[in-house]
Design brief:
6 helices; Rossmann fold; binds S-adenosylmethionine; seven-stranded mixed β-sheet; alpha/beta
């Protein structure tokens, strides 16, 4: 069984994204973590793809890559993950394979330097590249935080991008927790249908 501290609760956007990732990602798959931060999403992806799979994990701060490297190493999973100190807006430069999933967890690293916050123009550029690489039946998950400066604008940019995708090729969902404040994180889920 794949262990994860959020596995039994659906409080928040991240556990909901993990539910979809567990449903879709299979051993041997190629996947991307577009914002690895402390490595929790990368760890789940590394577990799901198994020894034959591959994970590319992006972040712009060394602190995040170090935390992710240590987490993976503690679980003996470093070998299946390529850590990249690069902005996700360069995704297609580093990844040329078809992907089962691309994971975005926007905002800033909790407890870290808020200078390294995700930005709408980079996020949308990366989403566009992710949509070009994703397999039919593959998913893009985007956890969105609107409680910090720039967060609402980033959420709107993601919504505009998602709304513009052809319904013949993509299914685009937005999931909010109705019994939490309007600023609670929410999930945008994109599935490539054909
Ligand atoms: C909310 S944190 C991610 C949390 C992470 N997924 C986890 O499981 O711990 C957002 C991360 O995005 C990173 N980031 C900001 N701009 C970025 C960019 N252009 N490309 C990749 N990562 C970026 C930040 O450095 C930060 O670590």
């Amino acid at each position: 069984m794949i262990k994860n501290k959020t596995s039994n609760s659906l409080r928040g956007a991240v556990p909901l994204s993990h539910l979809f990732l567990r449903e879709r990602v299979r051993p041997g798959d190629r996947v991307v973590d577009a914002t690895c931060g402390n490595g929790h999403d990368t760890l789940l992806l590394a577990q799901l793809v198994g020894p034959e799979g591959r994970v590319w994990a992006f972040d712009v701060q060394e602190e995040a890559l170090t935390a992710t490297r240590e987490l993976l190493s503690g679980e003996g999973l470093s070998g299946r993950v390529e850590l990249l100190r690069a902005g996700h807006e360069r995704l297609a430069e580093f990844v040329r394979e078809e992907l089962r999933a691309v994971v975005f967890n926007l905002g800033f690293l909790p407890g870290g330097d808020r200078e390294f916050v995700t930005r709408p123009e980079h996020t949308v550029a990366a989403l566009e590249q992710a949509a070009g690489l994703i397999l039919a039946g593959g998913i893009i998950t985007v956890c969105i935080y609107t409680g910090h400066p720039g967060g609402p604008e980033e959420g709107e940019a993601v919504a505009r991008w998602g709304a513009g995708l052809s319904p013949k090729r993509f299914n685009v969902w937005s999931s909010r927790q109705l019994n939490r404040p309007a600023t609670a994180p929410y999930l945008v889920l994109v599935e490539k249908s054909g």
